[in-house]
Structure formats: structure tokens, C-alpha cells
Amino acid sequence: MCTVLRCQQAAVTNYPLTTKGPLLSAPVCKEHKDAMDAGEPWRARAEDQAILMGKDIKLAGSQLAVSWDGFSRDLETSTSGGPHMLRARFTGDDGEPITVMMNLDTLRALVESAEVQLEFPFSPS
């Protein structure tokens, strides 16, 4: 059976979920394999061993940012005496804007984590 949430089709292949470390895969039907191969966004959800696609990704609280649109200062919080806040702007896979607010310490922690996880040096200016 296909592991894409709510799909009732028979699985035809095991789709690779990882490319590094232990290789993990999940059974998927032809329709979902073709969609994944074509680049449609998907997420593996470990707790119930399901693959999320389409609306289910957003309903689960995840969204894929497909383009970086820049930073701006959030003047409301920057002028209130608190720490300077940044708005990181992205475009989601559904074409809608995604805004994430963070302070500079959070941005530094994010960059440090990315350097470790992705194994490349990067320093924000």
C-alpha cells in the first residue's frame, strides 16, 4: 500500500527518503512516484510513517520555502526598546509569502546549525 497519506493505491516501488546516512525508503504508488520525481513537494512524517503531499504538508504545519525574498527590520519591535527583530521573507511552494520573525541571536544559531548540518562554511554579514 502507498504510504502517502490517504492514498489507497498499491505501491509499485520504494521511494528513497534520504540521500545521506542510513538510506530510508517508503513504498509509493506510480502516481505519487511520478509526482515526487517531477519535483512536487513532499514530507516524510516519522510518527505515523506517512508521506505528506499537497494540502497535507501545510495542514501539518510545514511549508516549503522555494525562494528567498530577503530580510527587513521589523520597526514595530525594533523601536519598542526590545531586541532588533528581523523579518525573513520567502515565497512558499504555493506561491504565497512566508514571513518568519527572528532576532539576530536566533539568526546566528540558525546559520551555525546549518553549517553543521549541511557541512559548508557560511557567515552572514
Keywords:
125 residues; elongated; 2 domains; 4 helices; three-stranded antiparallel beta sheet
Order of helices and strands: EEHEEHEHEEH
Number of strands: 7
Shape verdict? elongated
Rg calculated over all Cα atoms: 18 Å
- Count structural domains: 2
The secondary-structure class comes to alpha+beta
pLDDT under 50 segments (min length 5)? 120-125
Portion of residues within helices: 25-40%
Sheet-strand content, in percent, reads: 25-35%
Q: Tell me the span between the first and last alpha carbons.
A: 49 Å
Q: Mean pLDDT across all residues, rounded?
A: 80
Strands across the major sheet, in which order?
A: 5-6-7
Can you summarize the main beta sheet?
3 strands, antiparallel
Supply the number of helical segments.
4
Kindly describe this structure:
It is a single chain. This protein has 125 residues and is of the alpha+beta class. It has 2 domains: 13-59, no CATH class; 65-117, no CATH class. Helices cover 26% and strands 32% of the residues. The chain has 4 helices and 7 strands, in the order E-E-H-E-E-H-E-H-E-E-H. The strands form 3 sheets. Strands 5-6-7 form a 3-stranded antiparallel sheet. The N and C termini lie far apart (49 Å).
